[in-house]
Amino acid sequence: MMSEQPLPHKQFSASGFLIFSFVMLFVLATEALLPLFPNDFFPYLRIGEEIIKTGHIPATEFMTYTQFGNPAVYLYWLPSIMYFGLYKLGGPTLITIVSIFCTGAFYSFLWLSLRKLNISRLTTGSVLVFLAVSGAAYFPARPQLLAYPLFGLAILVILSWQNGENRLLWLLPLIALLWANIHGSFIVLFLLLIPAIVFGSGNRKRLVFFAVISLLSTLINYYGLDLWASALSMVDNPSIKLFSAEWGAPANQDLPSYIFFMTLLLIPLLTAFTKPRIKIIYWIWYVGFGWMALTSLRYTIWFLPFEVIILSMLLDPFVEKKLQNSNHFQNRTINMVIGICLLIAPFAFVPGVRNHWWKESPPIFSSTTPVEAAQWLEQNPQLPGNIWSDFNYSTYLAYALPQRKLFMTNRFEDFTITQLEEDQRITSAKYNWRSILEKYKINLVMPSILREPDLIMALSSSAEWKEIYRDDRAVIFVRIP
Known about the structure:
With about 475 residues, this protein is mainly alpha-helical. The protein contains 19 helices and four strands.
């Protein structure tokens, strides 16, 4: 009979900490090894630099010669300042450390959320590793990353309310305030709250009260009520929908997408073979955010936690049945020592640290970052006229070479469909690419060797252009007078 009694709380806590630490080792080491992607990061450094330099948030486009001076809204002004300050203070090393803490906080809140649902520690750890594999593409350094801890905390607060615990509800207005000033995805908070009010089992009056306060809190920002209009307008912006890859529907083309679609099929199958007591609110979130994820890659990250919640509820009875008499990993001291070591270990993979012990460590910047070409251009300011460059290259040049205005940046909403189509025709050297270069008085062209081989071939065979620089990533051509 003694073997059927629950283990002491301290032993369970120690073993749980060990499992949690293993999960964090995988999650945080993966985060530490992610390179900085130019299109997600460097334009925001330029925006932050501009705000610090001028003392105000810009009201017009200032990074390109094609849209310079046109009205523009900078919703991500606060993370731009934060990232610029961090980058100036500690470079990629400090940026990566901050990313590790954001990712760690997000997963820690999800761990606590699953524990609120009485999911076993082993099941919790397993599904969170699944989330880390399927969602790794959403965790590079970018403004959205700063919102993930708020998302995770909001889930924890609402699940606690669902269990009859109201003491954390005061955090919702604070979450709303911070989220609205960090990223346009703050609307997700209300996509959580509205179904909870309608279908949840907690104290609805209290949740409605704090939801209203949270709504009002979003108005405390630089743009006021216009923040909502600007955030919602991006969802239907034709330039974004047609030309931004992450706003397109997911395709079954890599490991994370395989896992995503496989899980969508697996969950209904498991539901058919089991009889889990899953409350309607979880299915509402699952279906609602699942539909969003199927319409746009950008929404997948908001769906994954609810996929994890449903999956953990379906799998946990099987895991518990297999491990109900297990007494492994119950040495509290050893568990704590190993767990702490595992939590510290990911910092050894941070840029600026890993190169001291890992001779062939992964690069700090992604392969789409033209570091050497940008340095060469900076050393040759006498080169004439406007520059066109590969899209990813231009996003890096926005910060690395601010003295040269660009054809475009990653802010698709600032550009017309016509210009975005013209950019694609230049990229692929389509029929009127020469006239487009002439239209914008472009005298320098910097294509990617990997992404624009047709353009490089066309420029090389043209009597109007001359190659003046080449490295393993980029080629630079100048127009012959």
